[in-house]
Design a protein that fits this description.
Layout (H helix, E strand, L loop, with lengths): L6 H11 L4 E2 L2 H8 L13 E2 L4 H14 L3 E4 L16 E4 L6 E5 L4 E5 L4 H10 L2 E2 L12 H6 L7 H4 L6 E8 L4 E4 L13 H4 L7 E9 L1 E2 L3 E9 L2 H14 L4 E8 H10 L12 E9 L5 H14 L5 E4 L3 H17 L6 E2 L2 E3 L5 H15 L4 E7 L4 E7 L6 H5 L2 H14 L15 H7 L2 H14 L12
Parallel strand pairs: 2-4, 3-4
Antiparallel strand pairs: 1-2, 5-6, 6-10, 7-11, 8-9, 8-10, 12-14, 12-15, 13-14, 13-18, 16-19, 17-19, 18-19
This protein binds flavin-adenine dinucleotide (FAD).
Length: about 475
């Protein structure tokens, strides 16, 4: 780990951005240091807030020359501790790089700087009558640089892919301060190695993303949303195939939720049960079309067929935007309200889609065998094989004692993931939270290739040291 920078070196960093954009006051630094769930609290001598790519480059050049560790940061919404300065590193906040350099509706591209808030990028696309489909609960505060660096997934991944699939070009400042410009709009570009993919999902360990060319899509003219009760995850899986076929590829969201998960939302958030009776499992599904007519009829037909086949036991289709918002709120509040049920041990995992039902079954059994009375609360992106397998503490148990079993529980659940050929991090990344676990489960040759890439691109280990590898 690099030593803390001297006062003289710090002054040189501050001079690059100017005192106004160098945050040294502890109270003003707090929003950059606290992870939103309170899991980590970092320290830093200064938060640097550069206003352009040249300043980012100058900061990294100086950091490399002085061996000063840097933690890149966007909206500070990451869930694995990657954006936190755990050892007094300088924070490099990209939040002033807010330019939308171009929206090219003909090429279906949009060029955004790293600090553009995801919701702002979505709105800019909509203004040009286009869709930027990446969507997640933190979209009001996470940034383009952050979602690309974590290769975020979210609820639109089923139809449009994850962040990686939505990028054509990148501008990246390398660890030594050089600016790598592969910021092109090309769908076809076979001029050697596709370098953008090295930096997407690298969590700020290989370079600092300063801008990206993003893909845009035709904007849906009609969207239909249904909240559906199903008997089991296997029925949900069969429903997925049925709706995909019956709606001719219009399915854009398919979120599975256990009753306990929605119960938490009904209990702790401003949500109400959209159905009159209670059921063990639910799906929030959405179909979208660029046509204005016919979509609702196709969805109804699909649901009626599913009902006749006993895949669906009850359903409500949103009649208004307001009702659609209410249905979404049930899904979106699940992760947040778990804290009101005491400690929650999290797993963001993926398995082949066909294996999701047996994964949920086996992991739930294993979790309860480890800590009797614990409450598995599975929910997530069934259409992507990605389940947030969170486990709430037994009712009335000691929170600290439960959370002290975090690694034991991870080992048990990740063993089930391994048996199903899955991943221990489907969309949130590795950061510090899963770094040790990664060394246990990743193919050793793949891990060595990752480490040699790190050494090649960041020889002095100044970029987010101690994260990922
Ligand atoms: C309520 C909530 C819901 C969420 N839902 C989802 C979801 O559905 N799907 C999903 O995938 N994730 C989800 N996330 C987590 C997700 O990873 C983040 O919200 C988002 O991707 C991070 O963006 P950010 O700008 O906040 O990045 P930060 O948290 O600031 O940083 C995240 C990582 O990226 C690095 N980084 C940031 N900016 C740059 C840059 N410009 N260049 C290089 N490295 C950089 C940081 O060093 C860090 O390692 C959710 C988080 C919350 C709080």
């Amino acid at each position: 780990m690099s030593p803390l920078p001297s006062a003289e070196i710090l002054a040189r960093f501050v001079a690059i951005v100017g005192e106004r954009y160098a945050v040294t006051n502890p109270a003003d630094q707090e929003p950059y240091l606290i992870e939103q769930r309170g899991l980590w609290h970092g320290t830093t001598p200064v938060v640097l807030r550069p206003g352009n790519v040249g300043e980012v480059a100058a900061i990294l050049k100086l950091a490399d020359a002085t061996r000063t560790a840097i933690v890149p940061q966007g909206g500070n919404t990451g869930l694995v501790g990657g954006q936190t300065p755990h050892h007094g590193e300088i924070v490099l906040s990209l939040t002033r790089l807010t330019g939308i350099r171009e929206v090219d509706a003909t090429s279906n591209t949009m060029t955004c700087e790293a600090g553009v808030i995801l919701a702002t990028a979505q709105a800019a696309a909509a203004e040009a009558d286009r869709l930027f489909p990446l969507s997640l609960g933190a979209e009001g505060s996470c940034t383009i640089g952050g979602v690309l660096s974590t290769n975020a997934g979210g609820t639109g991944a089923l139809a449009y892919g994850v962040a990686r699939d939505l990028v054509l070009g990148l501008e990246v400042v390398l660890a030594d301060g050089r600016v790598m410009n592969v910021l092109n709009k090309l769908k076809k570009d076979n001029t050697g190695y596709d370098l953008r993919h090295l930096f997407i999902g690298a969590e700020g360990t290989l370079g600092v993303i300063t801008a990206a060319v993003l893909k845009l899509f035709p904007r849906p003219r009609s969207v239909e949303t249904a909240f559906v009760a199903v008997p089991s995850p296997q029925h949900a899986l069969d429903l997925l195939a049925l709706v995909q076929e019956a709606t001719d590829g219009a399915l854009t969201t398919f979120e599975l939720m256990a009753r306990i998960a929605v119960d938490f939302s009904f209990r702790h958030a401003a949500c109400r049960d959209p159905l009159a009776q209670t059921y063990p499992w639910y799906v929030l599904l959405e179909v979208s079309s660029t046509q204005t007519d016919g979509l609702r009829d196709r969805l109804y037909e699909a649901l009626e067929t599913a009902y006749a086949k006993h895949l669906v036991v009850d359903a409500v289709v949103a009649d208004s935007l307001e009702q659609r918002g209410e249905l979404w709120r049930v899904r979106e509040t699940i992760a947040d309200v778990q804290k009101f049920e005491g400690g929650s041990i999290k797993h963001d995992v993926s398995v082949p889609i066909a294996n999701v039902p047996s994964f949920i079954d086996e992991a739930s059994t294993a979790a309860v065998a480890l800590i009797p009375g614990c409450r598995p609360c599975p929910f997530g992106h069934l259409g992507d094989g990605n389940i947030h397998f969170n486990i709430s503490q037994p009712v009335g148990a000691d929170k600290a004692a439960f959370l002290a079993r975090w690694h034991d529980m991870n080992a048990v659940v990740h063993a089930v993931v391994g048996r199903h050929g899955g991943s221990i991090s489907a969309e949130h990344g590795i950061g510090v939270l899963k770094r040790d676990e990664l060394t246990r489960v990743k193919d050793p040759v793949a891990l060595e290739v990752m480490r040699s890439l790190k050494r090649t691109l960041d020889a002095n280990n100044i970029l987010n040291p101690g994260k990922v590898v």
